[in-house]
Amino acid sequence: MPTVLDARALCKSFGAVTAAKDVSAAIEKDSVVGLIGTNGAGKTTFINMITGYIKPDRGSIHYEGRDITALVPREITRLGICRSFQIPQLYSSLSVFDNMMVGIGIVLANARLAGYFSRGTPLVPGYARPAEEVAEHLLARFGLLDYRERNAQVLPGGVRKLLDIALTMVARPRILLLDEPTSGVSAQEKFGIMQMVLEAVRAEGTTVLFVEHDMEVVSRFAQRVIAFYDGRVIADAAPEVALADPEVKRNVVGRRA
Amino acid sequence: MRRERTPLVLGGILAALLAGGPFIPQWAIFIITVAFAKGLVALGLMLLLRAGLVSFGQALYYCLGAYAAGALGRFLGIGDVFVQMLCGALAAGLAAFILGFLLAKYRGIFFGLLSLALSMILYGLLVKNEALGSTDGFNILPSTLFGVRPGPDWVRYAVLVAAAVVSFFLAFLVHRYLGTPLGRLAPAIKDNEIRVEYMGASARYAVHVKYVIAAVLAGVGGALAATTVGHIDPDMAFWTTSGEFIFITILAGTGSVIAPFAGALLYEVIHTTAYDLSPNTWQLSLGAALLVIIVFLPEGLWSLFGRRHAHRS
Q1: Distance separating alpha carbons of residues B304 and A161, to the nearest angstrom
Q2: pLDDT tier at B310 (50, 70, 90 boundaries)?
Q3: What is the interface pTM, i.e. ipTM, of the complex?
């Protein structure tokens, strides 16, 4: 499979804290990659650098051969790299449906399909359907139809998580970065949510990177694991190989594993 | 849905106003016209408020519009109401476009106080400017419409017609804007700007656009007020004038483009009546009115209609 995202020798320090030391990773198209590591190991920094939220001190990020290191988040989103958040970032005063509609509106506006002077009902790029139908379609995919008219502020934790991820899908991302999609979700729900998310995302043909602390979830869903420790990548291999690595066992998984 | 009915309601009110205008007493026409002027400013504030931004300095653009209209008469001898409004809009819009590059970066109290500071700079400049009448200001040329000067009994009605037609046209444009993706972005910006950026939109650009639209509306309102009252002075840029506009916007609520005009009319009626009954304590009456609204109708005057709608659907 061809490389779609290529991070080369990324370095980032916050004062005395080094959040990334020569982090390199080439992500193949259509793969599902798990990012593991203890808190502060550099996983979220890695995601933040790819999505343009923070700029690396050194190194470069290429997406389909194009250097995106200097772009800001909205430009990177428009190229097709989207992210979800560890703490769901929703429009809390709007209903679940309107959350989706705001997102779809942005997609339409960026494609110059819905402006002040446009008429008629534009079709959402990538879905070839009108906005309302795309919203319904995605809500159905993520099992959110029952919550359609509920205010985003009063949703249960797992539902907030799902809506956060569903929101990233409106732009039909080519690469999706999920920051701890199952954190704050009960142990019983974890596998179900992960299953649903991956099915939905894969159906749209998306490459996935996800941050996860639960090694069972990682070994079940990831095709490849990148392990972070102290700002470095200490392992990058198939799950069974990476999780068996002595350094990973010592620094990430814990001795018992 | 209510949204689709708004243009119809707008047209209905406009027709009623134009037909009924000749039978309304002069003092009432004056109040209604001033309400249109202030309603336009409040309409712009409503756009900003929807995005979570409170401008404490909208008087800047109100005053700029008024002085642009005044300068037309003073230096060029033009008293046409439409030309005045157009120039007011252009002056305010241009100023907001430039200042917007600075202001669109700020949110919350910083946005509010920075806008207030800018309006007080204009106030300071006008007070020191002898050519523009300093603190006394100056009188506006008698209003004309397309070069025609209406008879003394018809001037007020003519200006009302111009005010109503322009206000409804602008309200309709704003109504349409609220339905576009950029317009719908307002509550999203208020709720979660990070998410807006991560979905591929620029919150700063959206705020800049809203700021310019709000200024244009305030500029038209200022020009209209100038030609209606016949006199302008630097107090139009004073911060208490900005406060008045915020008062009207809160009173009205942000539910519809009609709300700011209804709010402005109610404000003018309360203001005039209170001033009539007790010239020294009219602020007390206004304050009490706002208190009642905030306690019983937290979403503003408009929630009276919104609530009924909610029951029906």
Answers
A1: 36
A2: very low
A3: 0.88
